[in-house]
Amino acid sequence: MIGMLFNYFVIALFLWAIVDAATRPKDAFPWAGTMSKWAWVAALLGGLALRAGLMPFRIPGSFLISLACFILVIYYLGTIKPKLDDSPRRGPRDRGSW
């Protein structure tokens, strides 16, 4: 029961990270010194597919793959997202002062 709840928690983290990465401006990623926006979205989608695909099976090595996917999403949310939060915002409201 706890294991299944943890799996759903990790999938929720992936969904949060994917939505976060997809809704950021693409210029923020090079500013933060990381991969491009769509590379992060693809990596997170791949991690989600691997993680969700391995949930119903007990195959050798699935724990290590699941652990790598978990580390990927934690790395994005813990390291990359704060850098993106600090990136300068450019848009119609931030055109400078009069």
Automatic annotation (TrEMBL):
This is DUF2516 family protein. Keywords: Membrane, Transmembrane, Transmembrane helix. The lineage of its organism: Bacteria, Bacillati, Actinomycetota, Actinomycetes, Actinomycetales. It comes from the Bacteria. The chain crosses the membrane at residues 37-54, 61-78. InterPro entries: DUF2516.
